[in-house]
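Bit of a strange request maybe. I'm writing a small parser for structure token strings and I need a real example to test against, not something I typed by hand. Could someone generate the tokens for this chain?
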Amino acid sequence: MATSEEELFASVDALLEEEPQLPPPAERARLREAAGITQARLAAAMKTSTQSIKNWENGRSEPKEPRLSAYRRLLDGWAAKHPAHGTAPAPAPAADPHSETVSKTSTSPTAPTAPATQSVAPESPAARPATSSRRPAPKKTAGPALDPRFPHGPLAVLDGDGSAYGVHGIVLDCPARTIPELVEWTLKESGLGAAKLHRNGKDSDPLIILTAAAAVKLGLPERLEGHEQRRSLRLPADHPVVKQVVKAKWQLTQRGFGPWARIYRKAQGRERQCVQLAVLSWDALDERSWPGVADMEPADIARVLGVYATRVITPRGSTAVSGLELMTALRPPTRAVQDRATGNWVSGHNPGSLWTEPMDPAPPEATAEHPVVVNSGWTGGFLNEEAYQWVRDVDLLSDEECTLPYAVGLDLNTAFLAAAARLVVGLSAPDHFHAPAFNPKIPGSWLVDLSHIELDPRLPSPFTPDGTRPTGPAWYQTHTVAYAQELGYNVHPLEAYLRRESGAYLDPWHDRLKTAYVDTLADLGVTKDLDDHQFLAAMERHKQTDPAMAAVLAAIKATVKGGVGKLRERPQGKSYKQGERWPALERPTWRPDIRAAVISKARVNMHRKLANMARMTGLFPLAVLSDCVVYPSPGESPLGFLPYAASGKPQPGGFRLGPTPGLAKLEGVQTMLWAVDLMEQGLNPARHIKGGDAVLDEGE
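Reply from user aminoacidic:
Good idea to test on real output. This should exercise your parser:
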């Protein structure tokens, strides 16, 4: 425990390490000991440390001796506010809800914390926190260590009898009868929240998920009804609950009180005052992204969302919204920098981020209704970097292929996530160039004629989403043009919109989601050490192993897809008029060029594998839909046609089975007659190979 104490004190000292007039470390340690600051009181002390230090740092012109006094006063203040356990406390407004003893906490932004067990110290009735457990927590509470400021995890699911179910089996008593009371309880007594994912970012606001019974108890309608999609509905401004919120001097965001509502007050210094609410009966959890979760018991819902919050981010809306928020949380736009003229700390640009202001795209990167297109009268065409929707011409099927009994579908794991790895994208505004020399290292949009490139017609063209050969000059993202060069063809751009500043903006996003995906698959029994036979068997039963973790996996995949799609969110609503700005354009993360880069790289990666497969095995695909490809096969397993070396290891360059992003899994099996019949009708077998109608994974 002493190590934890020193590490936490070191985190306080780190905030001040650039101050030349600090007491030396040994003196600081002596002063802490003199003030009686011990581990048992450390969690509560740390809660107020940031603001205290900020206030203390304002007087930077003091000489060294007053500095020592200031540091001593700071520690003494902690000691007065947070007396040792069992001693008479100083007068305070309320008992601190964070006085429970918790295990050592890691706040690493990218790696999961080490497993630990939460322990609750015995308490006298007088010292018992206002947030008490309704029933004993289960003995087995192994999981990531919790931040001392948020001992009860990132979120809770509230039911109709006032029980708030948190992570690791925690159950809290919530006495709130109204929404304002619920907000006050959440911020002051619940111990809910999550630490920031980046040192320049912000802590995640606590999330309360309301069951239907809890919503009704708090004065909300059980369902939201109207002619619009339910996720777009909001409570009217004159609804009693909205009036209660306003009367209590709380605010709602512009999206109002809908399935995902944010209730806040202006931040006090660094302390945010914001609570996120999600109403289950208002379809806050989309069935496609969270299969079966809304119908689970509250404790199971808390488990699913808690794992997602720990591995990805505390949900702030749909998985698409969460995917976009994760980008910003891992690449905050600003950081504290010191003004050399005044010595004050001010907000400055965080290198590698997208900054704080929205940026207009180049005309070919925009959509037809965007103001930069409408106002300029642009007629020069647009980027068409989309996912594959391609079916081979039936006339190109050989007799040998038609006599094979099966059509087998392979699906690439989170293909967009794999494409985001080490992807260099533009960070600055686009500049226009005429007849530039092509440079594959510069992100941007290039007008170039690739129609002269002739490839095998049994493969889709790598340059168009429908796989047809280009007919003339068109706009392409850098990766598409670079692939033409990789295939051995000369490219001569006519013009281009390029960005001078670039960087791997999505790298932390990729790393965190990849880890979440792989770890969740491992929880379902699909691990990296399985051979291909074992992998196929494990994937066949993984959803039945643990439905809750299977739902987390589905949500992670939806976060990838939706996050990429949100980079080019289109206007919504029948009242929209072409040329008007829509709300999404005010986000720095409205970046269609980044979306185009991800999809272009994913499509190029797919074509490269298709070409390698044809070269190594002589097999050509029947159809491709985004990250799913269908091959004719002699058997029901992909092991019958995937390329393997004599040693039994998969050949590099082709499709390989495995649990990591970019590797493949079995999507489905049908008869060859079934596939040919669909192809003759102009339908895509890859859309139906799994059974039913697959959703095109195009990042929308």
